[in-house]
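pasting for the record
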Amino acid sequence: FNCPVADCTEGACINRVYDWGFEQKLTMPLSTGRVNAKPAEGKWGITKGASIAKPKGEKDNVLVTKVNAKNKKDIPADGAAGVQIIPAEQGKEYKISVSAKVGVKKANEIVYITPLNQNKEMLSLTSERAISGFKFGKWETKSTDLVAPTGTAYLKVRLVKSRNTNGIVYWDDVKVEVVK
C-alpha cells in the first residue's frame, strides 16, 4: 500500500484516504454513489448534488452534498454522494472517522463503509458499517470500527445526503486508519 499523504510512520500509513480534507479537489463525476460506483484510485467520485467547495464561514474546502427542489430530479435515487475506494486487507481492524455539519434537521445523512473483494464488488451487506445522526448546525466527528472480513481487498467509503429530504450536509476530515 502506498500512503496517499505524508503521514507515514515507520512504514505504516496512518490515514488511507486520498485528499481526506478535500483540499486537492481530486474528483471525477459519477452517475451513482451506490454499490456499483467505482471511482479511480486516489480520487473522490462525486454525483450530481455533490461538490467540493469552500462555503462561506468555513476555513477550507469541504465536500458539500445538497438536495433541493431544483436539483432533486437530477440526483441519483441513492442520494447526492462522494465515494472513494481504498486498498484494505482482510482480517485487519479499521477505524473510520468523519466530520460533518448538517444544514437542516433530519437531513438523512449517512456514511457507509463497505468491504469489497478484488473485483471491487460488495462482499456482504452484513459486513457494511454506517454512521449517521450528525448534529444540526455544528461540526461533529463520529467514528466506527470494522474488521475486514475474509476476501476484503478494498473498502468503499460513501458520504451520502439522501434525496428524500431537502437540505445540505458538509463533510470533512475523512479518515480510515488501521487499528490492528
